[in-house]
């Protein structure tokens, strides 16, 4: 080959030799025989060595060892047949729907014994339709804000929005009653006097 180019052997590149003025540096490539060729075929772990792959469960936690599945065609039934259901490794909390009243079946996520605020959505719709449109619409907005705050777990914001929705519903109801009674009195006075 040309000076400074690859040699004709094709396997190694020999650096050009100097004229002897300085030290000669020789670079050699080392190859690892373990990484040459195709990788070994996949073999699933031995079921007898499961205890080596996965740590044991904490004391007091009754759970079967993990089940290793052979690769196959498509997903099967869940849970797999022949495996009895076991307790979950976490506790479940059931949050009651804000519109449905009833006893709570689990601890409240807001804290110990703290009740979730009411959103007043139904009341807001009723006072919007029957009593006062303007304050009813604002009460609807605060009711929606209460639901959104409960959905993201912000109980303090939900309490504040719930109190505003409650006061607007009461104001709309009282204003609607006052307007209705005033209209009836005006009609009676106009007809009989």
From TrEMBL:
Transmembrane segments: 120-142, 168-192
Region annotation (Disordered) ranges: 1-50, 64-112
A GO cellular component entry from the record: membrane
InterPro entries: CD225/Dispanin, CD225/Dispanin_fam
Keywords attached to this entry: Membrane, Transmembrane, Transmembrane helix
Superkingdom in the source lineage: Eukaryota
Statement: the UniProt record of this protein carries the keyword Hydrolase: no
Compositionally biased intervals (Polar residues): 1-11
Bias kind Pro residues: ranges: 38-47, 74-88
Family matches, as Pfam families: CD225
Cell compartments where the protein resides: Membrane
UniProt keyword Nucleus present: no
Family from the record: Belongs to the CD225/Dispanin family.
The name this protein goes by in its record: PRT1B protein
Organism of origin: Haliaeetus albicilla (White-tailed sea-eagle)
Gene field: Prrt1b
């Amino acid at each position: 080959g040309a000076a400074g180019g690859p040699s004709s052997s094709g396997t190694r590149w020999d650096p050009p030799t100097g004229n002897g003025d300085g030290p000669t540096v020789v670079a050699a490539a080392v190859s690892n025989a373990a990484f040459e060729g195709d990788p070994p075929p996949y073999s699933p772990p031995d079921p007898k060595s499961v205890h080596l792959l996965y740590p044991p469960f904490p004391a007091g936690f009754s759970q079967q060892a993990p089940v290793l599945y052979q690769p196959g065609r498509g997903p099967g039934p869940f849970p797999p047949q022949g495996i009895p259901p076991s307790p979950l490794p976490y506790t479940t909390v059931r949050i009651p729907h804000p519109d449905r009243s009833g006893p709570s079946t689990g601890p409240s996520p807001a804290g110990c014994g703290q009740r979730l605020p009411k959103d007043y959505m139904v009341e807001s719709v009723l006072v919007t339709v029957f009593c006062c449109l303007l304050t009813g619409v604002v009460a609807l907005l605060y009711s929606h804000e209460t639901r959104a705050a409960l959905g993201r777990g912000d109980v303090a914001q939900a309490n504040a929005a719930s109190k505003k929705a409650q006061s607007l519903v009461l104001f709309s109801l009282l204003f609607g009653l006052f307007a209705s009674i005033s209209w009836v009195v005006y009609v009676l006075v106009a007809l009989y006097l």
